[in-house]
Amino acid sequence: MLDIQGLTKTFYGRAWLRDVSLSIAKGEVVGLIGRSGAGKSTLARCLTGLETADTGTITLNSETITPGRGAARQQMQYLWQDPTQSLSPYLTAQNTVLETLNGFGIGPRAQRLKQARSLLATFDLPQDSFTRRTHALSGGQCQRVALARALAAEPQVLILDEPLSSLDLAAQLSTIRLLQDIHRKRATTMLIVSHDLAPLRHLAHRIVVLDDARIVEDLPMSCFATQAQNPLSRAYAQTLQTDQAEAASLSAHRETEPATGGA
Ligand SMILES: Nc1ncnc2c1ncn2[C@@H]1O[C@H](COP(=O)(O)OP(=O)(O)O)[C@@H](O)[C@H]1O
Ligand SMILES: [Mg+2]
What is the DSSP letter of 219? Predict the structure, then answer.
């Protein structure tokens, strides 16, 4: 469905993406991981027209697209690493979503405000937050508004840049559930950027590792731990085992804890 071929991007003479090729099937969720500064956001931005690749072609449903231009502006939506920075502080939550519906002419004009509000409601935002400006919302709520705005465009591909990294643990868990829910209901194709493999275990079908400007591993999530070959990928796989061991020891610990009564 989405096909990236030979993407290269250089900043000040240094290549941050070198001949990057990647295909994503319709409805597939791909996790893109790599060290900080590896070029993950650069790749995500090249796909959405926020950066322009030096070379390479991007096709969506077999048609070559120019990211950020024409139909591609609607078809590929990008969720910024820090959603608070991508939302206008002058707009309320509902007007943020409404702006996208108006911009792309989605749904009958008279119904759009209702549509914006119902989209926010499906993302568990409280009614009283709809008319608040986004600077008065929490980080987790801002992210839900940004997600609602991105999905209001009815995109074919959703690109999420480190959607968990600016959130506390509780907000991370609810975002994972929300993304699972979105995928269950809409089967949206997603590329999720992360510097951490563990949270992707519950979300991604496939893991792609970016290192030294190249894709060094591309494996189904289910066999990543056993089949990853590249040293960096192995290090990521190791964190998965440590994470599982910690979770197991935590639950064993809980089982041996004396009952404290109450809830
Ligand atoms: N617009 C830009 N101009 C110059 N350098 C940039 C620009 N955007 C990113 N870079 C550099 O490219 C490298 C990769 O950045 P980035 O893609 O943000 O990494 P990641 O998301 O993997 O942490 C970084 O060293 C960053 O400083
Ligand atoms: Mg980044």
Answer: E
Kindly tell me if the per-residue pLDDT of 256 is higher than 80. Answer: no
CA of 80 to the centre of ligand 1 (A): 14
Which pLDDT tens digit goes with each residue over 31-42? 999 999 899 999
Q: Which residues contact 49 (CB under 8 A, 6 or more apart)?
A: 66, 67, 68, 69, 72, 73
Confidence of residue 127 (pLDDT cuts 50, 70, 90): very high
Q: Which atom of ligand 1 is nearest to the CA of 43?
A: 17
- Closest residue by Cα to atom 24, ligand 1, is 37
d(CA 32, CA 41): 10
Atom of ligand 1 nearest to the CA of 39: 17
The whole-angstrom separation of Cα 195 and Cα 36 is 7
Looking at the CA of 160, which ligand is closest?
2
State how far the Cα of 49 lies from the Cα of 42, in Å rounded to an integer: 10
CA quadruple 251, 256, 258, 260: dihedral, nearest 10: 10
Give me the domains of the chain, ranges plus CATH numbers: 2-256 (3.40.50.300)
Mean pLDDT for the stretch of residues 110-119 = 95
Distance of alpha carbon 167 from alpha carbon 169, whole angstroms: 7
How far is Cα 208 from Cα 230, in angstroms, rounded to an integer?
Answer: 11
Asked whether 194 lines ligand 1 (CB < 6 A), one says no
**Closest C-alpha to ligand 1, atom 26:** 37
What CA dihedral angle connects 114, 106, 100 and 54, to 10 degrees? 160
